[in-house]
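Session log. Operator J.P. requested a structure for one protein chain; no other inputs attached. Running the standard single-chain path with token output.
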Amino acid sequence: MRQDPGDRIRPARKAVIFNMIVRKYRSEDLSEILKLFYDTVHSVCKADYTLAQLDAWAPAAPDTERWRASLEKHYALVALADGAIAGFGDIDETGYLDRLYVHKDRIRRGVGGALLTKLENAFPVTEITTHASITAKPFFEAKGYVAIREQQVERRGVTMTNFVMKKSLEPLIY
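Structure written below.
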């Protein structure tokens, strides 16, 4: 007897379990971070931005010295999973969250949330500000951020949309 297609049980999604360590950025992480950034922006954000915008945002040949200087100036963290960088982020002492990126194959697995929590608690500030992409906006909203305004920014002569977002924090006692 044939089974009715409506009676089929769909297999459950496999849970991917991995060990994750969050640590401070090291200069030797830079090349892997740059690859993660390029790959993630060009795959995860392609539904929200044009190819020209993606190329301007994450060029194939980034300014490595500018990246190095920025990551070293800020409080920067990397998340390691299975021996590779699964995500990274950085924040400055004013509470400006400059970057938060997760490897395209590690999206929605807690990497971004783990990094964000540690970055939000890095400095005794009462507010965090970030400029979130169209793609990242729902993630930040789910974490308590509010879109203050939509804006058009220019990268390498190309205009694209992002959102100024803020989150109020309870004051920390240090």
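Operator note: The chain has one domain: 17-168.
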